[in-house]
């Protein structure tokens, strides 16, 4: 596999989940992630584990903040890892976020950390 093909393969599911997140298309968003998805906070503490918890969390989040969007500030890829620097907008002013999600591509979908 050529280097460009490998990079493209790592980035495709990350871009797909970003687009689904912004469109609030929950099923398409969830489809990008592995059933064993895990979410960690900035202190590396496990916050969510497994697709059921992940799906419930994002269903509530999408319903609560319909105007919420993730603006991609930058994207970096190292091997099968993709790191997006995102700015989250469309939430209450006091809840404005900057995120640095780290996505690790594995067979079966993304495993999200951070």
Automatic annotation (TrEMBL):
Q: Which SUPFAM superfamilies match?
A: NTF2-like
- Gene3D superfamilies, A to Z: 3.10.450.50
**Domain of life, per lineage:** Bacteria
Q: What residues does the SnoaL-like domain cover?
A: 14-94
Q: What protein is this chain from?
A: Nuclear transport factor 2 family protein
């Amino acid at each position: 596999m050529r280097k460009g093909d490998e990079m493209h393969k790592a980035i495709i599911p990350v871009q797909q989940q970003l687009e689904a997140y912004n469109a609030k298309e929950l099923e398409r968003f969830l489809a990008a992630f592995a059933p064993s998805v895990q979410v960690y906070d900035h202190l590396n503490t496990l916050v969510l584990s497994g697709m059921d918890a992940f799906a419930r969390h994002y269903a509530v989040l999408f319903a609560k903040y319909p105007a919420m969007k993730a603006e991609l500030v930058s994207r970096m890829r190292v091997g099968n890892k993709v790191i997006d620097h995102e700015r989250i907008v469309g939430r209450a002013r006091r809840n404005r976020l900057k995120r640095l999600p780290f996505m690790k591509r594995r067979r079966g979908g993304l495993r999200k950390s951070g």
